[in-house]
Design a protein that fits this description.
heterodimer; A: 507 residues; alpha/beta; Amidase signature (AS) enzymes; 17 helices; B: 95 residues; two-stranded antiparallel sheet; 2 strands; flat
Amino acid sequence: MELLQMSVRMLNEKIKNKVLGVKETVSALHARISEAEPGVGAFLSWNEDRIKERIDEVQAGIYSGRYAGPLAGLPIALKDNICTKDLSTTCGSKMLKNFVPTYDATVVKRLLDAGMIIIGKTNLDEFAMGSTTETSAFKVTKNPWNTAYVPGGSSGGSCAAVAAGEVPLALGSDTGGSVRQPAAFCGVVGMKPTYGRVSRYGLVAYASSMDQIGPIGRTVADCRVLYECIAGYDEKDATTVKKDVQKPFFNQAADKRKEHAERLKGKRFAVPKEYLAEGTSEAVREAVNRAVELLTRNGAIVEEISLPMTEYAVATYYIIACAEASSNLSRFDGVKYGYRAEEVKKLQELYVKTRSEGFGEEAKRRILMGSFVLSEGYYDAYYLKALKVRRLIKEEYEKVFEAYDCIVAPTAPGTAPKLGTSLQNPLQMYLGDVDTVAVNLAGLPAISVPCGVDEAALPIGLQFIGNSFCEELLFEVAEAYEELRGIFPTAWEQVSGRGKAGMWSER
Amino acid sequence: MVKVDETVLEKAEVLSKLQIAPSERERTMREMEMLLAYVERLNEVDTEGVLPLSHGESGESSLRADVVTNPDGREAVLLNAPEQRDGQFVVPKTV
């Protein structure tokens, strides 16, 4: 097996047993990055200045026992809306083109404390607003399965980098599906933790009541160990909760893994019919139905349910997300950091000109909409109404989890669209988020796992949604499904002929 | 249904501190109108007596002691400023 195909666990063991050097690992990735980047374009910047020093530091730390955990020596890519000290953080916006944070986000600190190496920062939709990564001010990222298609978004760069074999792990952020949907489109695993599980300190805010940082990897196990590293209370984010996080993998205390049948037997899964309704492609429907059959054959109890409020999720999400964005993005005024318009004489003019020139079209659209729904005369009709519907959506989920362990659904109604076909009609693009946004409104954890490909050989994602703070169960069932499904190659393995013929075999 | 005309757009621009270019105004108004027409479907939902929910997880905030822990980072912070002088941000004359 080649280094680039190894699981996180295998890489870590080889590094700790001195079979592999940290430098050798990073060099192998750099070689792959040089090969892949001209076609994929997942990265916005590289950790050039300090990476040599960091490699030596980590290698020494592994020798001395300072870095003894399961992520020691592992390289990672970060979505470029996560603050990294002395390393530019642009949010994919002209507004922050030259912004260099003075501090690390809490998640970054935890990765560094675990002995990880930051390779670079990845492309995203501007301020994480978009579903294709095409609203980035800097470049277009392409889907490594077929470069005529988008990687999804907004964490398109992070998911494309993992799919292209450029990094084994990445972090993204998920406000309305921005980790899960690109993970589905790129054929990798992406997870959104419960709201409050992972610190948002140092994540540039888009919609604060829904933003959550999540792990991206090739397999559920890879994602799980990264999740366990970043999860947990942080005194710098008052919305993180003081609940214990089970960390069997990160603490290397996991018992021998249970058989998948043991993990599925008697578990109750709900399939909401609204998630497979009109608008869902035939290929997606078939792939999800196949996955449901597989779970059923292996001891799971699967039943169809109804979540009637799903119909209102996109409207509720866009009112709340835009409202919060209009407030969060008011900090970009051309005074303290970021872009500043030239030749202005008055302060008000500075604000208006800076923001009009610095923000892209999608960001401006959402700020305008957000200001409108919060404005006098419209606040009750739009914003307050959406907050009330939000409660009804949350309550509908709560009822489901009284009777079921987990919800199974598609991650997106279709597969990746072609480049250049999504931005003309914003409403159409927003409706593509129908399977993911309700989870953010309700604060629930969810994970996307590849479950097939469509007729154009583009990946399809299967979504498991869990009850609040039930991430462990979510990982258990997702991993059981993954094992039953069989190996699903990364785009890089498939395109380069390293993928197994027939893609996967279902047991 | 809300009709988005110049008055509505101008109000949103003032609140947003944005100015939409003349060539973009018509399209922006039509898009806002289309999006508002779509979200008005929430009126179909009976929310009588329902309390608003601002966060998915509505647990209490995890507060900490009000103690300064960050070191003084004035110089580093000012390095990001588009314009600075004598350790301070510079803005156009206000008075």
